[in-house]
Each structure stands twice: as C-alpha cells, then as structure tokens.
Design goal:
Chain lengths: 114, 110
C-alpha cells in the first residue's frame, strides 16, 4: 500500500543531544514537509522540499536541519540548538502540481527531551 | 499563500449538519481552498478541496462564495467520530508550500 511512514512513534532524547526523525513515502510525491505541533496548537512549518536536493526554511527552522538526497526520504534532525524540542512532529508529502494535490500525512513522532 | 480565518471552536449536535466557515478574503485567482481535519494525536486527513465551484464527496460538501472570499465546509450528518480540529487552507495549484492556521475545534455532542 502507498503511504507515508514516520519512525519512531515515540522518541526520548537527553538534553544536548541531536536526534533524527525519519520520514519515508512511496507515493512518488515531489514535495515533502515537516511540521511541529505543540499541545493545543496548530501545525507550524519547519522545512519543506519541493524537489530532490533542494529545501527551504519554513516559519520555525531554527535548531532544525533536513536533507533530501532521495525523493522518498526527508529526514529531520533536531539539533541541540533547538531550545524547546519537546513536541509532536508531523511529516507530509504531496505532488507539486495538477488538480489532485492533496497532502498525505504520517502518524507523527512524539519527541520528549528528558 | 493567502491567510485564512476560522472560528476557534464550534459545537454540533449528533446527527445534525455541521457548517464550518472559513474566510480567505485575500485569495488569489489560482489558489484552491483545501480542508483537512486532525483527530487527536493523529496526522491530519484530507477532506475536500475546490477552486470556485461547489464540491461534494463521500465525506463532506464545500461551498465557495461567488467572490471566493469565504467558504463553508458541511458535514451533512455529524457523528461523534467527527469531533476533530478542522483546518482550512488556501494554496496555489503548483509548487506552493502548505501552511496551516489554527483551525476550528468541532465538538459533536450526543
């Protein structure tokens, strides 16, 4: 079945450590996105990529880094520079153009800094 | 991308129609209106989208005003499982990033 997969579902990190969240899709989508969601809040865009080997900062990119070496994969690294990393992280993908450009979301990774 | 304005919360009785409004007064001619919903602690789910004509699918109907400055998502017979946060987004057809607002919390009550 086609879809978008995030792993792990839950992640614990010690303060000061970098951690990488995985996002893989087999939908042949060009565009991929990373969002952060805090309790009771909406989704805020961290980074997005419209094509392989290219990505742009979203609204809250500080303390995060990404790579897009393959069309299927868009990993997010939460660095030690991110001051408040505990949150729910969502990855999404969609096609860049055409009529049907609905986005598909993964089930999220809940990151907790301990 | 044009910004959207939605009420923070709404209540609806089970079995009744839920009408969720969205204002997008700065929408451009090539921007579509998309609706998603997010059930607690899950990834958002696509519901419906449209450009200027009204749209209907198995989940909902989308009514867009003639001037395209606002729209309404209609869930014809709301159930308890429709309790979620509903997001209205406007986005151009090609290449633009997907930006979410705060959404509307819909509470369906028995």
């Amino acid at each position: 079945d086609g879809g978008i997969t995030q792993s792990p579902k839950y992640l614990f990190r010690k303060e000061g450590q970098n951690v990488t969240l995985s996002c893989e899709q087999n939908l042949n989508h060009d565009a991929m996105y990373w969002y952060r969601q805090d309790p009771g809040q909406g989704l805020r865009l961290i980074y997005y990529s419209q094509i392989v080997n290219d990505f742009q900062k979203g609204d809250i990119a500080e303390g995060y880094s990404v790579s897009r070496e393959k069309k299927e994969s868009f990993p997010l690294t939460v660095t030690s520079a991110q001051k408040n990393p505990t949150a729910f992280y969502l990855c999404a993908s969609n096609s860049r153009g055409g009529v049907n450009t609905e986005a598909f979301f993964g089930q999220g990774t809940r990151l907790t800094v301990v | 991308d044009a910004k959207t304005t939605q009420p923070p919360s709404m209540d609806c009785a089970e079995g009744r129609a839920a009408n969720l409004p969205c204002n997008h007064s700065t929408i451009s001619g090539n921007e579509y209106v998309y609706w998603y919903r997010q059930i607690h602690s899950q990834g958002p789910q696509y519901i419906i989208h449209g450009l200027k004509n009204n749209e209907t699918n198995e989940m909902a109907s989308l009514i867009i005003t003639e001037d395209r400055k606002s729209s309404t998502l209609i869930l014809p017979h709301a159930t308890l499982r429709d309790t979620a946060v509903y997001y209205c987004i406007v986005r151009a057809e090609y290449g633009n990033k997907l930006v979410f607002g705060a959404g509307t919390i819909l509470r369906v009550k028995s």
